[in-house]
Amino acid sequence: MRRMHKHRVRIADNLVQNLRWSLSHQARTLAASSTCCTTLTTTLTTTLTTTLTTTLTTTLVVTAVSNNVWAAPPLVTFAVTSSWDTGYNGEIRIQNRESTPIPSWQLVFDNGPVISTLWNGTHTVDGARHTVNNAGWNAFIAPGATVTLGFGGVGSLAQNISNCTVSGVAAEISYGASGGGGGGKEPEAEAKGPFWAPEDVDGDRVVGAADLSVVLGAWGSEGVPGAAFPADVNRDGVVDAEDLSALLARWGELPPEKKIVGYWIEWGIYGRNYQPSDTPFEKVTHLNYAFAKINPDFTIAPFDTYAATDKNYPGDTWDQPLRGCYNQLNNVLKRQHPHLQTLISVGGWTLSGLFSDAALTDARRTIFADSCVSFIREYGFDGIDIDWEYPCGGGLESNVVRPEDKQNFTLLLAKVREKLDAASKEDGRPENRKYLLTVAVGAGLDKIANTEVQMYHEYLDWINVMSYDFFGAWDLSQTGHHAGFAWNPAAGNSFTQQNYNARTALEAFLAAGVPSEKIVPGLAFYGRAWKGVGPTNDGLFQSATGVAPGTWDDGSSGATGVDDFTRIEAFVSTGGYVRRWDPVAQAVWAYHPTQYGGHFVSYEDTQSIGVKADYLREHDLGGFMFWEITADRNETLLNAVVDELGGRRLLD
Q: Which of 83, 425, 485, 648 has a CA positioned 20 to 30 A from the CA of residue 69?
């Protein structure tokens, strides 16, 4: 049957290409006609409806059920969503893991839950055998799609289910945990992330004959638009010629999905007044919440408990167990944007002091890793991001550092990976939603040399390379590019000048054998500035007298020289600042000759992002990470990232 299916797909591909040519030819013929639009619309609808429905229904739609041949068996997950002393509420999730649709499902299983009531289907029981039939509107399960049933259970969920079938085909059984961090409640909204393409019905990033088969299999169906009704490509509630038109217009291979990882800063809710609901969820794939701290007993914990778990937001009640940003991001807003995954980032520049102690022995590493699992389960995160700044030194002077940090960093990641994988299995998380483990690492060659890149990458889902902060006003002897792509010899020939740039760092990770898809270069959504810089070369590679005030400096703790891109954008738009491009380093800067006695600002813009995106495409890297979400209020840089990676904005 699989060989026959491939043959039919080839037939469908040829048919579609011929139809596209035919319609294009008709369009050119009718172009001079005053009734061109009306005629084309009629022709398109008639041709698609009649030819495609008649021909492809007989040559393309493959019914796996009638052949009892499946590439992967359906997965049926039984999960508890809430419980009390005498009973519980639960879900049954039926996932179609085949490449062809299930047209009208029926679920049968033995033993398991005592079901008092069931919704989204009809339930009967005969002795130990349960039979669940679809509700009509949810009868069709597209490839990769999931149908969710809710039920009320008596007592507790007995995990002794056997002989489970979907439409007569033996199914794989799993047991999930409740919503939040455990097993994940079925998303209530459609996953409209940056790479969302409803025309790609089966989610394989190719709009082709397999998608067409799903649409035709549901031809004329009506339902609630959304993920549970994927054949309705244009989401108007009915599968018809308009859906076929939309699908044909997008026909072919789509850009591969990449990661867009944004750091979400906890302290942003205060002076910046950046709240969880301000987040552009549709333009990111992952959010790293910065930061959690390490306790003296080597467990992790929220840093600012008011922001993380206590702050009241609209809809919160006085007696709910979890409030704050954790609840908003993980339990409220992530439900509305189910493509999103959130990770808790542990450490950072100011909270890395105890990493060396926590990683020192196997017993301590086990405490730390177990705590990571407990943390994400309790607060609803999808993974852990380790931001140790830095093994063997280079961070704050107060940090504990040891020479053996190099090896212990690897061992710590291995232990966390072990515990996360076990938790993913226990919590019934599917492979594409297993708990994640990532790191944020320094991009300087000295920082890279202090870790075992060639070993530790095996334990990670990806590596966030902090390819910024190469130069800053901590050195007043010379200005430079804090996020430059390449070395400009005009800067000098020191080790730092030659090697502190994005390309050198990324080449080091590739040379160490890290799979390219695991390398995620970082982008700076902020700039670094010097003051007292002379006008020669518009300030580039010149000396400075001090650190310029930054966007959020309050005057009491000194200047940082750190400016949000939003502020830099305003600088350049006023005309007082000149924007300059270094074609060798492929980096941008802005300069004002009189502000602060000569204001030099090194930053990232759409042109520099384009350069890095070219490198990303050339080497097939995993995507982009950026620091941080509040600094680009107009979303100028984030839009550039989505566009460069071929996201939905560009498709539209």
A: 425
Question: Residue 626: beta bridge partners?
Answer: 262, 523
3-class DSSP assignment, residue 521: strand
Across 143-157, 181-195, 498-512, the highest mean pLDDT is recorded for 498-512
For residue range 472-495, what is the model confidence (pLDDT) as tens digits? Answer: 999 999 999 999 999 999 999 999
Distance in angstroms (rounded) separating the CA atoms of residues 237 and 169: 30
> CATH code for 75-176?
2.60.40.290
Show the tokens assigned to 257: 């999905």
Q: Is 166 strand, coil or helix?
A: strand
CA distances from 569 to 161, 522, 563, 590, 612 (A): 60, 20, 10, 10, 20
Cα of 449 vs its chain's centroid, Å? 29
Do residues 288 and 266 touch, judged by C-beta distance below 8 A? no
For the question of residue 389 being annotated catalytic, the response is yes
3-class SS of residue 527: strand
Q: Is the Cβ–Cβ distance between 307 and 324 less than 8 Å?
A: yes
Per-residue pLDDT reduced to its tens digit, 442-478: 999 999 999 999 999 999 999 999 999 999 999 999 9
Over the stretch 322-341, which tens digit does the pLDDT of each residue have? 999 999 999 999 989 989 99
DSSP 43: H
Which runs of E-coded beta strand occur in 3-145? Answer: 75-83, 87-95, 106-110, 115-119, 121-126, 129-134
509-566 pLDDT per residue, tens = 999 999 999 999 999 999 999 999 999 999 999 999 999 999 999 877 789 999 999 9
Closest listed residue to residue 161, CA positions, set 175, 179, 148: 175
- Strand, coil or helix: 142: coil
Of 229, 220, 217, 243, residue with least CA distance to 137: 229
Tokens for 150, please give them. 């809710």
pLDDT tens for residues 622-650? 999 999 999 999 999 999 999 999 887 65
Q: Which of 186, 190, 199, 389 is catalytic?
A: 389
Backbone angles phi, psi at 253, to 5 degrees: -80, 135
Q: Amino acid identity of 107?
A: L
Burial class of residue 133 in the structure, from the number of CB atoms within 10 Å of its CB (0-12 exposed, 13-18 middle, 19+ buried) = middle
Q: How far apart are CA 495 and CA 490, in angstroms?
A: 14
Q: At what angle do helices 241-249 and 2-30 cross, to 10 degrees?
A: 90
Q: Which two tokens stand for residue 130?
A: 């349960």
Going from N- to C-terminal start, the domains of the chain cover 2-60+201-252, 75-176
Do residues 153 and 87 lie in contact, with contact meaning Cβ atoms separated by under 8 Å? Answer: yes
**Average pLDDT estimate for 135-144:** 82
| Those residues with Cβ within 8 angstroms of residue 574's Cβ, 6 or more apart along the chain or in another chain | none
